[in-house]
Amino acid sequence: MPWPLWVPATLALALVVLPVVGLLTRTDLRRLPSLIVSDASLQALRLSLETAALSTVVCVLLGVPLAVVLARSAIPGIRLLRAVVLLPLVLPPVVGGLALLYLLGRKGFLGYLLTVTAGIQVPFTTAAVVIAQTFVAMPFLVVSLEGALRGGGDAYERVASTLGARPWTVFRRVTVPLLLPALGSGAVLSFARALGEFGATITFAGSLQGVTRTLPLEVYTRSESDVDSAVAVALLLVVVAVVVIAVARPRAVDAVVDAETTGGAKRLKGTGRRAR
User: Fold this and answer.
1) pLDDT at position 253
2) Does the structure show a pLDDT above 80 at 131?
3) Could you identify which of 25, 119, 259, 275 might form a hypothetical disulfide with 165, taking C-beta atoms 3.0 to 4.6 angstroms apart as the criterion?
C-alpha cells in the first residue's frame, strides 16, 4: 500500500471517530446506566428497531424490482427515472417530510382520499414513521443493487435465456442469487439509515412518546432540557448503529454466492431443461 495514502486515510478516520470521542468526554458516566435504561429511552429504542426493521422489509420488497428495472430496462426516459428515484439522497430530510405530509396529510390529494373513503389518517402515526424511513432509506438499497447488476453484467442471464429459461425463472434462479451480497449490504445500509432518520420523521410523524418518538427524536427532545441525558441516549444510538453495521452484515452471503457461481453451469443447464 502506498504510504502517502495513510495521511488522508488517518484524517478521514479522525473526522469520523473524534466526534464520538467528544460525546464520550461529555458523558456523565455515573448517570449513564440510569439514563440509558429509563422507560423513555427503552421505548424509543424499541420503536426505532421495530420501525427500521419494517422499513427495511419494505425497501427490499419494493427496491429489488426497482433496481432490476433501472439496471436492465431500456425504456425511454430511464435516466430521468433513475434521477427521480435517487432524489431522496440529495433532498434535505425535512423537505422529504413536507412532501410526504402534503401527499398523505389531510390536505394532500392521496391523504384526503384515504380519509374520506376509509377514514385512515397516516400522519403522526407509527405507520408514518415507517413511510418516512422507507422514503429516505430505499435509495441506498437501489444504488447498491443497481451498481451490482451493472458491474456484474448480464452474461449468466443471457445464457439462461438461450437455454430456454423464462424471464421469471431467470430472475429467480440466476439474478437473485447473484444479487445476494449487494442485497445484504444494501439492506444493512437501509436499516442503518432508517435507524438514524430524524428530519422526515419529525415533520411527517411528529414526536409522540411511544408512538412516533424514535431514538433520534428522543435525543433531540432531551437536548432541550438535559444535555447529559441527550448525550447518553446519543451514545446508545451510536452503539446500536455500530453493532448493526459491524455484526449484522450477512457475511455468509458471500459463501452462498460462491457456491452458486461454482455450480453455475449445472444450474443453468438444469434450468434450461425444466423450462423446455
Assistant:
1) 44
2) yes
3) 275
Three-state secondary structure of the chain: CCHHHHHHHHHHHHHHHHHHHHHHHHCCCCCHHHHHCCHHHHHHHHHHHHHHHHHHHHHHHHHHHHHHHHHHCCCCCHHHHHHHHCHHHHCCHHHHHHHHHHHHCCCCHHHHHHHHHHCCCCCCCHHHHHHHHHHHHHHHHHHHHHHHHHHHCCHHHHHHHHCCCCHHHHHHHHHHHHHHHHHHHHHHHHHHHHHCCCHHHHHHCCCCCCCCCCHHHHHHHHHCCCHHHHHHHHHHHHHHHHHHHHHCCCCHHHHHHHHHHHCHHHHHHHHHHHHC
Arithmetic mean of pLDDT, 15-23 = 88
Quick one: pLDDT band at residue 10, thresholds 50, 70, 90? very high
CB 181 within 8 A of CB 148: yes
Per the model's pLDDT, the better-predicted residue between 257 and 192 turns out to be 192
Whether the predicted model's global pTM rises above the 0.90 cut: no
Amino acid symbol at 122: V
Per-residue burial over 35-55, b if 16 or more Cβ lie within 10 Å, else e, is bbebebbebbbebbbebbebb
Q: Count CA atoms closer than 13 A to 247's CA, side-chain side.
A: 6
Check residue 71 and give its pLDDT: 86
**What radius of gyration do the chain's Cα atoms show?**
22
**CA pair distance 231, 35, nearest whole angstrom:** 10
